[in-house]
Amino acid sequence: MNLSESRYSQFALCREMIQTAEIVAGFDPAAMEGIGAEIAAAGRLLMTGEGSSRIFPARSIMAHARRCGWSCELATEAGRQASEYDLADWAVFALSNSGQTAEVIRLFQKLEAEGHPRRYSLSAKAGSKLEQMATQGFVLSCGKEEAVAATKSVVEQALFYRAALEHAAGTPLSPDRLSDLAAAIEAALAAVIDPTLIDQISAAGTIYWAGRNDGVAEELTLKTNEITRKKSDFLEGTYAVHGIEEVMQEEDVVLWVEPYEESEEKFRETLGEPGVGLKIIAVASRETSFPTIRIPDAGDLGEFVQMAAGWSILAEVGLALGIDLDKPERARKVGNEFLE
């Protein structure tokens, strides 16, 4: 993706994807020290939101926390279901780009009526309805997004959680690491993708995303709908070889994020030949036994680079299909807006 070319620069979606690297480089993890202490004092954090404001931000930090063995208990749930839970002993963080998402506002109304003391919000606009319902509100630095599909905000939301939870665990995130991460994101977005692979993905009936339950493949599944207008599905872990192959078609494609090396042969025999006969494409920081879209290795921040690479793939597919990347026909920027 190169903004010096008008085929990219004419779309806000592409411009916002590119802006992500700058947002990461300028992010100040030290500013999260106070909220990190609040979360540590609670010892439990419920992360809520809808769609892109929950999938990657919450799932990525939960996966990282479990790998690190942090003691803080983390959970995520959509707003309506979370309202059915006993959250008296939990800190509750609600993310909403607009600050107007009905489900999380109603959850906060319920918690406020119960006298819940730890209600936190993060949105792109100061003074939003959600912030008014919070005991403490935070505002994203990335600014308003023009494209319907959220990109730069999703990454900043995930960085916010990462920095806050690193402080809660007593291991603050280094700004130097964010500079390296920004460069890796920029490289992933700028990489030239084999046009043959883009043609194969563009021709797919269904685009499947396989990978870990860390929010990356699941979020890219949603982005596939918004950006390419194609059907998609998220295949967690090795779910792709545990039954769904019964309904897959030869024209489908599986995009596998950082494949498990020991599972590659099983995927090939089940989904490739002599199985379904579909195409498997890896998105990975190493060479795999499949056609591979290589990305920089960012260590335990790798999910951010994987996300950027996925965006780039989908933007290329959307352009190949002649789609207006900024304006889906039915999808809305605010999924369900709160009305008084």
| Span between termini | 42 Å
Mean pLDDT: 95
Largest sheet: 5 strands, parallel
Question: Percent of residues in beta strands?
Answer: 15-25%
According to DSSP, the number of beta strands is 10
Level of helix content?
A: 40-55%
- Low-pLDDT stretches: none
Question: What's the oligomerization state?
Answer: single chain
Largest sheet, order of strands side by side? 2-1-3-4-5
Rg value? 20 Å
Distinct helical segment count: 13
Key features of this structure:
single chain, alpha/beta, 5-stranded parallel sheet, globular
Question: What layout of secondary structure does this protein have?
Answer:
Blueprint: H1 6-9, H2 12-26, H3 33-42, E1 44-49, H4 55-68, E2 73-77, H5 79-82, E3 91-95, H6 102-113, E4 119-123, H7 129-133, E5 136-139, H8 152-168, H9 175-190, H10 195-202, E6 206-211, H11 216-228, E7 231-236, E8 253-257, H12 264-271, E9 279-284, E10 292-294, H13 302-320
Parallel strand pairs: 1-2, 1-3, 3-4, 4-5, 6-7, 6-8, 8-9, 9-10
Can you describe this structure?
This protein is an alpha/beta fold and 340 residues long. The chain has helices spanning 6-9, 12-26, 33-42, 55-68, 79-82, 102-113, 129-133, 152-168, 175-190, 195-202, 216-228, 264-271, 302-320, and strands at 44-49, 73-77, 91-95, 119-123, 136-139, 206-211, 231-236, 253-257, 279-284, 292-294. It has a five-stranded parallel beta sheet, with helices on both faces. The protein is globular and about 60 Å long. It is 43% helix and 15% strand.
